[in-house]
């Protein structure tokens, strides 16, 4: 007997950045953050979680390769989910006993003891890992959601976000669609450090994103060690989290509620810049933006300046890739400005604009939009033996 | 009759950065700064100032080209110097009258009324302007020093630094050799915003500098407008000047007095990084470091890490050029690390080390050292007609 459930989960891109942990083990952040969930049509992780009394060990296949589940973070997530399942099973057992006492003939369905079964998990992204797009958020969100579905947990998305957070901080924001806030919380246990919805996709469905995948030969500083270095060495960082982020958090939420793109865009750009500023103020300094990233920034600044208003907003995570947000009504303005210099790369989906000088440094574009949170799907990645279909 | 005087003045490179004006007209800074004066053997401006009753207008020839003196900043400098000269002349006149009363026969020498004569000024750099090295500091320091010498002003270097400051803020620091502090001052008049010596060249003569001239096709944001943008838009900037710089100023002075290269170097690198961080936190963001600058930073960080101590310290002004400070005792370590990737460009003065992979992006190196302040010289740039020798 194999029990299984499959879920897809989205990528999210922060507009108010998460950078800095106050607790490394629990992934508790030094500040609250805000993100936009991107459409799963273009970027998503599909995960099938299965449990069976016949499985001999927990196993994970990621994009066709067997990967270790034996990291403290993944173990923390699995332990939390099994604990929640165990509670369900115990409650069911108790209910069954009570029922049995009351009516010896009634056949009450027993909840199978999945918490004691080993898990086989198969996970695939619909985008190349080589693109360097942060896939750990979608990955952990899909993992947690698939197991929660398999276990039939009645747990809310915010509750699940706290489990996903232990896997990868920003994964907690991928538990929701639309606009999402990760409230940093105050408790040492992390019980109040969770994602909440700021506004659903339906509030502002015309928000779009163009991702410029920037080629880079250098190895970026991993975000976990980068964050710690910034927390420990940047003299500007503490000021940012104490005095800049709290106000920006409120302003950005309001800009989203007001669908005020100019305000939302300006705050997004300023916060991306300030995140990279505190990286540069770290010692030794951390750089994620390269000369191509800077050209994209200048191109967007020029577009906004030419238009006399903010119609596009760039943001950069811990790498050189640019995400440019815009509203659908300004699509031709924004895409033609980007196409002018990057029209020669893949990903334009047949959109045609004038081309000028070709700039190197971008390997492809991904045109996408705001999207929904995790979705249950009937598409399964495992075969009847509980092994990945592709390798079956 | 032509009166003339010639002076050479040095370039200085800040180790604690000047970025931000609290008064644009008087060039009053938002924070104190510290610099090292570089040797005039490699980088200097030579200026001949001349005055004559026959000259019809104030004129300036800069590197062989007639340039306007008609900028508010230059006019402010000339007005101050003429005012000081006028006081001398009036005192001399008064003394002469007194003498004449006391002894009608005594011929007291009259101070000629140079303050009423027009000036011809000829100025030349011994380094290519194309190198993109800030030459305005040396230029204004030489201009002010040459006219002060011509006018035979008894004014101290700190007093003259206040006049140079009005021409170009950082020029005030080129009035001294060795290690120089520009004390920001508090007065609205700027009377207490002046350069002072931290330590002379003789205190630490073994300090050396390798300048890597970085090629760049883009036009940098001019520093004056860049500073104003940072002051107005960076939320981290005010914290820097209120809470970081005052302590760093004291620490860096102490590191210089202690000849503690590791401490001096670390503070220098951190302050360069923080200056570029507040530029990036400006809106729109200002970038001066390019990918080549970052490679130099990483190369220096790796060298220090391999050595287990700080033996080299990078600093970058408002452009991509790198200045790498080191102590003479570590010259082979530092130069061989730089030569490894940039050995193919000009400027190594016959120094030979191993070469590895050639990196592009640097057009030449300038190997120099700490140097003295302005020097009077008998070398004159004007001919007997009061015109530039080269064009005479």
UniProtKB/TrEMBL annotation, chains A, B:
Cellular compartments per GO CC: cytosol
Example of a GO MF term: ATP binding
Catalytic activity: (R)-5-diphosphomevalonate + ATP = isopentenyl diphosphate + ADP + phosphate + CO2
Coiled-coil parts of chain: 74-105
Pfam families documented for this protein: MDD_C, MVD-like_N
Diphosphomevalonate decarboxylase-like N-terminal domain mapped to chain residues: 9-195
Domain Mvd1 C-terminal residue range list: 210-354
Pathway: Isoprenoid biosynthesis; isopentenyl diphosphate biosynthesis via mevalonate pathway; isopentenyl diphosphate from (R)-mevalonate: step 3/3
EC nos: 4.1.1.33
Keywords: ATP-binding, Coiled coil, Lipid biosynthesis, Lipid metabolism, Lyase, Nucleotide-binding, Steroid biosynthesis, Steroid metabolism, Sterol biosynthesis, Sterol metabolism
A GO BP entry: sterol biosynthetic process
InterPro entries: GHMP_kinase_C_sf (IPR036554), Mev_decarb (IPR005935), Mev_diP_decarb (IPR029765), MVD-like_N (IPR053859), Mvd1_C (IPR041431), Ribosomal_Su5_D2-typ_SF (IPR020568), Ribsml_uS5_D2-typ_fold_subgr (IPR014721)
Domain of life (superkingdom): Eukaryota
Family per record: Belongs to the diphosphomevalonate decarboxylase family.
Protein name: Diphosphomevalonate decarboxylase
UniProt source species: Candida theae
């Amino acid at each position: 007997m194999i029990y299984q459930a499959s879920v897809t989960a989205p990528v999210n891109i922060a507009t108010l950045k998460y950078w800095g942990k106050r607790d490394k083990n629990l992934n508790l952040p030094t500040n609250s953050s805000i993100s936009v969930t991107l459409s799963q049509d273009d970027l998503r992780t599909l995960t099938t979680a299965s449990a069976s009394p016949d499985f001999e060990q927990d196993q994970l296949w990621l994009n066709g390769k067997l990967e270790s589940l034996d990291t403290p973070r993944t173990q923390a997530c699995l332990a939390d989910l099994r604990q929640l399942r165990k509670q369900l099973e115990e409650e069911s057992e108790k209910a069954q006993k009570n029922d049995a006492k009351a009516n010896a003939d009634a056949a009450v369905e027993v909840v199978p003891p999945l918490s004691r079964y080993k898990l086989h998990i198969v996970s695939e992204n619909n985008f190349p890992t080589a693109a360097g797009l942060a896939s750990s958020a979608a990955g952990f969100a899909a993992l947690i959601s698939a197991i929660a579905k398999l276990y039939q947990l009645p747990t809310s998305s915010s509750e699940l976000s706290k489990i996903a957070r232990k896997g990868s901080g920003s994964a907690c924001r991928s538990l929701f669609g639309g606009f999402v806030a990760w409230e940093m919380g105050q408790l040492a246990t992390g019980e109040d450090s969770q994602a909440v919805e700021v506004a659903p996709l339906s509030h502002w469905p015309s928000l779009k994103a163009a991702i410029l995948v920037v080629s880079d030969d250098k190895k970026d500083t991993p975000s976990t060690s980068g964050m710690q270095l910034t927390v420990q060495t940047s003299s500007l960082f503490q000021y940012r989290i104490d005095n800049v982020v709290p106000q920006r958090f409120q302003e950005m939420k309001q800009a989203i509620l007001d669908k005020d793109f100019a305000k939302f865009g300006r705050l997004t750009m300023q916060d991306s810049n300030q995140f990279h500023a505190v990286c540069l103020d770290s010692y030794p300094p951390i750089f994620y933006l390269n000369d191509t990233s800077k050209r994209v920034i200048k191109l967007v600044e020029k577009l906004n300046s030419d238009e006399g208003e903010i119609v596009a907003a760039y943001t950069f995570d811990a790498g050189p890739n640019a995400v440019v947000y815009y509203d659908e009504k300004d699509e031709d303005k924004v895409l033609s400005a980007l196409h002018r210099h990057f029209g020669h790369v893949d990903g334009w989906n047949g959109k045609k604009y004038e081309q000028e000088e070709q700039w190197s440094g971008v390997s492809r574009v991904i045109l996408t939009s705001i999207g929904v949170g995790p979705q249950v799907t009937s598409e399964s990645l495992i075969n009847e033996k509980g092994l990945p279909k592709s390798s079956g």
